[in-house]
Amino acid sequence: MKTFDELYAELTERARTRPEGSGTVEALAAGVHAQGKKVLEEAGEVWIAAEHESDERLAEEISQLLYRVQVLMLGRGVTLEDVYRYL
Ligand SMILES: N=c1c2ncn([C@@H]3O[C@H](COP(=O)(O)OP(=O)(O)OP(=O)(O)O)[C@@H](O)[C@H]3O)c2ncn1[C@@H]1O[C@H](COP(=O)(O)O)[C@@H](O)[C@H]1O
Protein backbone atom coordinates (compact mmCIF):
# COMPACT_ATOMS: atom_id res chain seq x y z
CA MET A 1 0.00 0.00 0.00
CA LYS A 2 1.36 3.46 -0.89
CA THR A 3 0.13 7.02 -0.93
CA PHE A 4 -0.03 9.45 -3.85
CA ASP A 5 3.06 11.27 -2.51
CA GLU A 6 4.98 8.03 -2.04
CA LEU A 7 4.21 6.95 -5.61
CA TYR A 8 5.39 10.34 -6.90
CA ALA A 9 8.66 9.96 -4.98
CA GLU A 10 9.10 6.45 -6.41
CA LEU A 11 8.46 7.62 -9.98
CA THR A 12 10.81 10.58 -9.51
CA GLU A 13 13.50 8.13 -8.50
CA ARG A 14 12.75 5.96 -11.57
CA ALA A 15 13.13 9.07 -13.75
CA ARG A 16 16.44 9.88 -12.10
CA THR A 17 18.01 6.41 -12.13
CA ARG A 18 16.30 5.06 -15.28
CA PRO A 19 16.39 1.37 -14.36
CA GLU A 20 16.02 -1.15 -17.16
CA GLY A 21 12.56 -2.71 -17.48
CA SER A 22 10.74 0.21 -15.86
CA GLY A 23 7.44 0.99 -17.58
CA THR A 24 7.69 4.50 -16.17
CA VAL A 25 11.03 5.11 -17.86
CA GLU A 26 9.48 3.89 -21.11
CA ALA A 27 6.41 6.11 -20.64
CA LEU A 28 8.59 9.14 -19.93
CA ALA A 29 10.66 8.49 -23.04
CA ALA A 30 7.45 8.34 -25.10
CA GLY A 31 6.87 12.05 -24.49
CA VAL A 32 4.06 14.31 -23.32
CA HIS A 33 1.72 13.57 -26.24
CA ALA A 34 1.73 9.82 -25.47
CA GLN A 35 1.52 10.51 -21.72
CA GLY A 36 -1.53 12.72 -22.24
CA LYS A 37 -3.25 10.08 -24.36
CA LYS A 38 -2.75 7.56 -21.54
CA VAL A 39 -4.35 9.97 -19.07
CA LEU A 40 -7.37 10.31 -21.35
CA GLU A 41 -7.57 6.54 -21.91
CA GLU A 42 -7.47 5.80 -18.18
CA ALA A 43 -10.01 8.55 -17.45
CA GLY A 44 -12.37 6.85 -19.91
CA GLU A 45 -11.83 3.51 -18.19
CA VAL A 46 -12.59 5.11 -14.83
CA TRP A 47 -15.85 6.50 -16.20
CA ILE A 48 -16.88 3.13 -17.66
CA ALA A 49 -15.96 1.31 -14.44
CA ALA A 50 -17.97 3.83 -12.40
CA GLU A 51 -21.06 3.16 -14.47
CA HIS A 52 -20.76 -0.56 -15.07
CA GLU A 53 -18.19 -2.29 -12.89
CA SER A 54 -17.53 -3.25 -9.27
CA ASP A 55 -16.11 -0.96 -6.59
CA GLU A 56 -12.89 -2.97 -6.73
CA ARG A 57 -12.48 -2.54 -10.50
CA LEU A 58 -13.28 1.16 -10.16
CA ALA A 59 -10.62 1.57 -7.47
CA GLU A 60 -8.10 -0.23 -9.68
CA GLU A 61 -8.88 2.01 -12.65
CA ILE A 62 -8.59 5.10 -10.45
CA SER A 63 -5.16 3.93 -9.28
CA GLN A 64 -4.08 3.62 -12.91
CA LEU A 65 -5.40 7.11 -13.67
CA LEU A 66 -3.44 8.53 -10.72
CA TYR A 67 -0.32 6.78 -12.00
CA ARG A 68 -0.80 8.17 -15.52
CA VAL A 69 -1.35 11.69 -14.16
CA GLN A 70 1.89 11.41 -12.22
CA VAL A 71 3.79 10.24 -15.31
CA LEU A 72 2.46 13.30 -17.16
CA MET A 73 3.47 15.53 -14.24
CA LEU A 74 7.00 14.13 -14.41
CA GLY A 75 7.01 14.44 -18.18
CA ARG A 76 6.29 18.14 -17.84
CA GLY A 77 8.35 18.67 -14.67
CA VAL A 78 5.32 19.61 -12.57
CA THR A 79 5.78 18.85 -8.85
CA LEU A 80 3.28 17.89 -6.15
CA GLU A 81 3.74 21.37 -4.62
CA ASP A 82 2.87 22.97 -7.98
CA VAL A 83 -0.44 21.11 -7.92
CA TYR A 84 -1.24 21.20 -4.21
CA ARG A 85 -1.15 24.98 -4.04
CA TYR A 86 -4.35 24.97 -6.11
CA LEU A 87 -6.21 22.47 -3.90
N1 LIG B 1 1.00 2.18 -10.28
C1 LIG B 1 1.51 1.82 -11.35
C2 LIG B 1 0.76 1.64 -12.56
N2 LIG B 1 -0.55 1.78 -12.84
C3 LIG B 1 -0.68 1.48 -14.14
N3 LIG B 1 0.51 1.15 -14.67
C4 LIG B 1 0.79 0.75 -16.07
O1 LIG B 1 -0.35 0.91 -16.83
C5 LIG B 1 -0.75 -0.36 -17.39
C6 LIG B 1 -2.25 -0.45 -17.34
O2 LIG B 1 -2.71 0.51 -18.17
P1 LIG B 1 -3.40 0.16 -19.55
O3 LIG B 1 -4.86 0.04 -19.26
O4 LIG B 1 -2.94 1.18 -20.53
O5 LIG B 1 -2.86 -1.28 -19.86
P2 LIG B 1 -2.29 -1.86 -21.17
O6 LIG B 1 -2.88 -1.16 -22.33
O7 LIG B 1 -2.47 -3.34 -21.06
O8 LIG B 1 -0.76 -1.52 -20.96
P3 LIG B 1 0.28 -0.91 -21.96
O9 LIG B 1 0.36 -1.86 -23.11
O10 LIG B 1 -0.26 0.44 -22.34
O11 LIG B 1 1.55 -0.81 -21.15
C7 LIG B 1 -0.11 -1.40 -16.51
O12 LIG B 1 0.11 -2.60 -17.20
C8 LIG B 1 1.19 -0.71 -16.16
O13 LIG B 1 2.08 -0.85 -17.25
C9 LIG B 1 1.43 1.24 -13.73
N4 LIG B 1 2.77 1.04 -13.78
C10 LIG B 1 3.47 1.20 -12.64
N5 LIG B 1 2.88 1.57 -11.44
C11 LIG B 1 3.72 1.70 -10.24
O14 LIG B 1 4.78 2.58 -10.55
C12 LIG B 1 5.97 2.18 -9.89
C13 LIG B 1 7.11 2.10 -10.89
O15 LIG B 1 6.83 1.15 -11.87
P4 LIG B 1 7.93 0.78 -13.00
O16 LIG B 1 8.35 2.03 -13.62
O17 LIG B 1 7.23 -0.13 -13.94
O18 LIG B 1 9.05 0.11 -12.26
C14 LIG B 1 5.66 0.83 -9.20
O19 LIG B 1 5.39 1.07 -7.85
C15 LIG B 1 4.39 0.37 -9.88
O20 LIG B 1 3.56 -0.35 -9.02
Automatic annotation (TrEMBL):
Domain of life: Bacteria
GO cellular component: cytoplasm
GO BP field: L-histidine biosynthetic process
Pfam families associated with the record: PRA-PH (PF01503)
UniProt entry keywords in alphabetical sequence: Amino-acid biosynthesis, ATP-binding, Cytoplasm, Histidine biosynthesis, Hydrolase, Nucleotide-binding
Record pathway: Amino-acid biosynthesis; L-histidine biosynthesis; L-histidine from 5-phospho-alpha-D-ribose 1-diphosphate: step 2/9
Compartments (UniProt record): Cytoplasm
Main location: cytoplasm
Transmembrane segments: none
Enzyme Commission number(s): 3.6.1.31
Reaction(s) this enzyme catalyzes, per UniProt: 1-(5-phospho-beta-D-ribosyl)-ATP + H2O = 1-(5-phospho-beta-D-ribosyl)-5'-AMP + diphosphate + H(+)
GO MF assignments: ATP binding; phosphoribosyl-ATP diphosphatase activity
Family the UniProt entry places it in: Belongs to the PRA-PH family.
Protein's recorded name: Phosphoribosyl-ATP pyrophosphatase
Record organism: Saccharomonospora cyanea NA-134
